[in-house]
Each structure stands twice: as structure tokens, then as C-alpha cells.
Amino acid sequence: APAAFRCRGVDIWLTDNPERHIARHPSVLGGKLNDEDTFLVNFLLPFGNFVAYFAVPSPEEMEPNVARVWEGFLRGDQQYRDARLKMLSVVADGPWIVRRAVGPGSAPALLGKVIPLQYYFTPPSPDGKRRGVYEVDVIISFSRIATAILNVVKGHTRSVTLGFAFIVEAATAEELPEAVLASFRLHELRLEDCPELPPWSSGEGGEEEAAELTDED
Question: Hey, which of 92, 93, 145, 178 has its CA 20 to 30 A from 123?
């Protein structure tokens, strides 16, 4: 079955200081982030930000089990979310050393078990002018295991096809069957061609504004 959330796109920005809460940055998704409610996964890498964006349909458009899982994830606290968000990574094509490092991709793993996560959830504004943005920051550089895997993959990105899927674990019978929330695939990535993270424009992305608009656990 296809993922419940359609992939809107992927950004890879090169920087020595990867950005947390990158949804505030005016350059993400070509400046079109606010066109739709969006679930955003921001991987903070030692060399940049790797960001995937997914359109969030209305609850009426989701399957009932998916809507229950998603609503629970939105309402949950840090501990609840860390215990539910899982990722499956699969090497669809690539050399043996990358397949060995990433693993067989046979079962999703809890992201928050080995990698620190941070959540910046901004609900839509009542007047509809601001869309909902639900960002999960995955702080790869804080995990020795994840960093080691990344170093292997980084050396072979031109010859690798990687697939990623995100699942919120079903904890009750009403939330079954467990479904893929969002997914995307990377094919033969040329890191040297990726742009540097653009500087902030003056007057944009202030910390005070962020504190007002986000539900940060």
C-alpha cells in the first residue's frame, strides 16, 4: 500500500552548523512549505541538513487507523513520540559494504532508542493563513552508531539507492494494521553538487517568533 502522506520533496543543505527547527528557514522547500500541512523530518548530519517533507491530508482523507495513530502522535509528549516513531531504511541498490552497514531493512527500528529526537509541532492558525508544520529533528551526530553508518554511506552515495519509510507504531487494536506514514527514495546522490545552506534573511526566523508558534517538547 502507498504511504499515507505524499512526499512533497527533499532538501540537502551543506553546512558545518546544521540547523535545528529548520522549518523556520525561508529557503526550505523552495519557500513553499506553507502551501500545505506538512510533516517534516530533519536529519542533522555532521556536514549538513537532510530534510524530507510530506503533505499531511485531513483526518477525513486518512484511513481510520492512520488517523488515530497520527492524532495520538500529535497529542503525545516527548516520551510517547519517542516510543512510537520508527524508521525503516533499505538499500535498494548499492555495494556490499553499504548493505552491511545499513542492515537488511527487514524491520523498522525505533528512532528515539538510539538517536536523540526533538519535536517542533506548529498547529495551523485558526484563520487558515498558517498551515500546520510538524517537524521531527533527528540528531544523527549525537549517535556514534548512526554516525558510523553515515560515514560508510557517504563514501558511496553515487552508487547507492536508499529507501526510507516512517511508521508510527500501532499500540491498540483500533490502530491496526500498522501503516507506512511517509516514505521516499534517494538515487545516486552527488553530495558535491548539493547547495550550501543559505544565510537567514534579516528579520526572518527570530527565536521569539519560534517560541510563540511551536509546541517544542
Answer: 178
Q: With CA atoms as reference, report the closest residue to 40 among 117, 141, 129, 145.
A: 117
As to burial, measured by CB atoms within 10 angstroms (0-12 exposed, 13-18 middle, 19+ buried), residue 77 is exposed
Mode of pairing for the β-strands spanning 117-122 and 215-216: antiparallel
Hey, what amino acid is at 211? A
Residue with cell 498551515: 131
Cross-strand bridge partners of residue 166:
87, 182
CA distance 150 to 155: 9
Helices (H) and strands (E) in the chain, counts: 6, 10
Could you report the per-residue pLDDT of 21-80, keeping only the tens digit for each? 999 999 999 999 999 999 999 999 999 999 999 999 999 999 999 999 999 999 999 999
Question: Going by DSSP bridges, is the β-strand pair 38-45/133-139 parallel, antiparallel, or unpaired?
Answer: parallel
CA distance 157 to 79: 33
Note the pLDDT tens digit of each residue in 120-158.
Answer: 999 999 998 899 999 999 999 888 889 888 989 998 898
Measured between alpha carbons, how far is 108 from 105 in angstroms, rounded to an integer?
Answer: 7
Per-residue pLDDT averaged across 168-188, rounded? 93
Strand 48-55, strand 133-139: pairing: unpaired
Q: How far is CA 204 from CA 23, 111, 199, 201, 210, in A?
A: 12, 31, 10, 6, 10
